[in-house]
């Protein structure tokens, strides 16, 4: 099994990188796990308090559960991922049944921040984009997908996203094995190299008849 961690600031293009990578691979051999599903359950808090949570701080993530699940997958066990709702700001009652696979991609803004989780990654990727581009993408996503208004998104960016990025996210690119820039030509070249590495691993597992 190959476990890949893909980090980068909010709106940096992590999801696009994952999608491009999957297009170059046999996606049946690849499972994608999002850090967004592992925000701590805050259902015991009033909604007015939940909306104030700083989701860009490492304390908001259930890293213990992420590490536990990665170890279970590596041991050949099926996990049940939680599902987080950004509408209610709490975990839903749903779960995602996730069996082990040849390649596990773990993506999220803070996945390279946690030491124990980082140790489980065979390959660490950081997707870089400038702040203006990330802000534009964040505005579009939060308004279209998470039901937030423009003023709320901009206020959250100024008060939490930008300072949290500078303090906790940007420094993690120093742990990356590969940095993928937000430049189409360089981006595609880096993804092509990454896809080759991953496919070689899948092919080796197939020949060996193992997922170890």
Topology overview:
Blueprint: E1 2-8, H1 14-24, E2 30-34, H2 47-50, H3 63-74, E3 79-85, E4 90-98, E5 103-107, H4 115-119, E6 123-128, H5 131-145, H6 150-169, E7 178-181, H7 184-208
Parallel strand pairs: 1-5, 1-6, 2-5, 6-7
Antiparallel strand pairs: 3-4
Helix pairs in contact: 1-7, 5-6
Could you describe the 3D structure shown?
This protein has 7 helices and 7 strands. The protein has helices at 14-24, 47-50, 63-74, 115-119, 131-145, 150-169, 184-208; strands at residues 2-8, 30-34, 79-85, 90-98, 103-107, 123-128, 178-181. It has a 5-stranded parallel beta sheet with strand order 2-5-1-6-7, covered by helices on one side. Helix 1 packs across helix 7 and helix 5 (131-145) crosses helix 6 (150-169). The longest helix is centred in the last third of the chain and has 25 residues, at 184-208.
């Amino acid at each position: 099994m190959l476990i890949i961690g893909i980090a980068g600031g909010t709106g940096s293009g992590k999801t696009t990188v994952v999608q491009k990578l999957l297009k170059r691979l046999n996606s049946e051999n690849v499972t994608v796990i999002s850090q967004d599903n592992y925000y701590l359950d805050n259902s015991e808090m009033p909604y007015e308090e939940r909306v104030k949570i700083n989701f860009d701080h490492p304390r908001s993530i259930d890293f213990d559960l992420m590490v536990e699940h990665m170890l279970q997958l590596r041991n050949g066990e099926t996990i049940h991922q939680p599902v987080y709702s950004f509408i209610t700001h709490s975990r839903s009652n749903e779960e995602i049944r996730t069996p082990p696979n040849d390649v596990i991609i773990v993506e999220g803004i803070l996945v390279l921040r946690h030491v124990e989780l980082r140790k489980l990654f065979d390959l660490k990727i950081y997707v870089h984009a400038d702040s203006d581009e990330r802000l534009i993408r964040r505005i579009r996503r939060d308004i279209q997908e998470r039901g937030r208004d423009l003023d709320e998104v901009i206020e959250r960016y100024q008060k939490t996203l930008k300072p949290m990025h500078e303090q906790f996210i940007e420094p993690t690119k120093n742990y990356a094995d590969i940095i993928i820039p937000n430049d189409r030509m360089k981006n595609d070249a880096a993804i092509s190299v990454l896809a080759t590495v991953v496919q070689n691993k899948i092919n080796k597992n197939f020949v060996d008849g193992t997922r170890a």
